[in-house]
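re: that complex we talked abt at group meeting.

here r the seqs, copy pasted straight from the sheet so there may be weird spacing, ignore it
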Amino acid sequence: MAQVLRISPNKMRYVFALLLMPFLACASVFKVGQNQPYKTIQSAVEAASTKDTILVMAGKYNVRNFVLRKQLTFIGKNYPVITGQGEKIMEIHADSTSFYGLKFVDVATSYINDNAALKFVRTMGGLVQDCKFDTCFFAIYTANSNFITINNNNVQSRYTDEASSGNAIHAWYSNDLTITNNKVYGHRDGIYLEFVENSVITNNYSYNNLRYGLHFMFSHNNVYSKNIFEANGAGCAVMYSNNVAMLDNIFRENWGAASYGLLLKDIKDSRLEGNYFYHNSVAIHTDNSMRLLIKSNTFELNGWGLRIMGSCMDNNLTQNNFIDNTFQVATNSQRNYNTYEGNYWSDYTGYDLDRDGRGDVPHRPVSLYTYMVTQNAPTVILMRSLIIDLLNLAEKVMPTITPKTLTDDAPLMKPYHARD
Amino acid sequence: MFELFRLYRISISNLLRARWIWAYLGFFLLVSFGLFRYSPTLSGAMVSYMNVVVLIIPLIATIIGSMYYYNNYDFSMMMLTQPIKRISVFLGQIWALITMLSVSFLIGTIGGAAYYGFDETLWTQLILLMVCGVFLNAIFTSIAYVLAVKSSDKVRGIGLAMFIWLFMAVVYDGLLLAYFYSFGQYPVENHAIAFTLLNPIDLSRVVVMLQMDVSALMGYTGAVFKSFFGNIAGLSISLFALIFWVLILQFFLWISLRKKDF
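got the structure back, here u go
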């Protein structure tokens, strides 16, 4: 054993250096505050070197148009307020910076620049956690930045006009983002993603935004789960993306003449599972979507349950619950290239003689009136008229006009996985 | 004028003794209470109640209007032997009938919905619905009365009145549907507004529904309708349309009473 441990003095030098390594790497802490060595954040950043920590005590700090080029960690004590004084606050050009417990306020609206409280530009890694944002034009903005984590932030604003308001969390050409546990409201879009891939968006609560709670375009291979989108001006819009998984989200109270629970446009090879749509004017509007698996979702008390345009094909709907929507399924085409099987329909009137839990009579989800309204919009004014009920009944007994192949041959007799 | 008022009072006290008027009140009490108590959502209850009101009120008013005329025929004949203007005899009766039907409807509605308590949107919609209900009562009772005065044959009178109800409630909307399909390539929204104004049942349904959140489902057509019916001017025009219906029917009644050879 002694043989093994015998190290020549020459080599000993390296071992010694190796042992000292952690101490050399240990970052120092720069305190910022009224009674602290540094009065302003800018001076502390200047004094700090890479991987140091800036500890910001409670107080109010002005940071305007600041460009950060060092990898630093910012920690706020009792939410120090960082104000942009009507400009943008910080642009981050360094990799792996972290922000904890800060409060950012007052970033001005601009029609030329995307003013943001925190803007990550061409960075690798980054973390924004437990921060608050109030009345920021854009709160968190990532541009060409990858591996950014945005966790447990509270982003609010009180905009009233779409044109002069920005997005709460805005990502552009950024991959591998993790956006979790954030609360975003009062902005234009709650979460906006464009050209974003391999990202995870979980447990966010996006509500009362002027336009969309969630808006994403050209963003492939992402997972959205357990988010709540509530009372947004136009609901959620998901466009031109492939391989998206939307799981266990709640879309509720997105109500208005131009509002959707979820708008799917040109979505392919994606999965919608376990989502709950409650009281939206349109729960899902889908156009030109292909190979979607729409499974075990619940549509309850929406105006339109599923509005599926004739351009959609090879979509599979199964184990969904359609409960008391004014129009359960609407389509504008007499042909049907999608499969509906084993869903629960609250307006199903068939029976189940063999007691296997599936109705013996096929169900036609598209009523005559629903079909008429999608064909000829003014007929909507006859909603709730007696003649509509009579026509629907006649069509149900002898279907002639509604899409013939759009049937659920084995409708469930009881709701699948009733949610509380 | 005095004799008209006196006959009106007599008819009211006569109607107060009728059992069916209490049944009518009970019906609305039960339906509104049941809907507002047991419906899972308030807007759902409101829509259902509106459906009941715009279908049942005209139907009942039509039937009862004709029946009341024919059942009171002997009384009216006796009155006509007195030195009383015939207009007073019949107007007293019909106004009393309209009053009683409306009051029963209002009490029933308010009583049932009161269970829900105060809610601004509910009561705004409900008041609008109650106004429409009262007008529907007046219009369809008058229609039934005019037709009854015109035809001494009971079956013919009731049959004609029922046909008018069926036409207004069902056939009219069917024709409207056909119109929408024939002229689907043209912007027919404004025509639809005009056609709606012409039919009191459609008008009541649309005016009440536009106040509810289901109007968000109506898309562009709904927006056009809302921009017309959603403001004070549009509501006033609707109100005038309903008042016009009542007045023109009173006029017809007056004409046919004058012409009639009893």
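couple things i noticed - The mean pLDDT of chain A is 90. The helical segments of chain A are 2-5, 9-25, 41-47, 368-375, 386-397.
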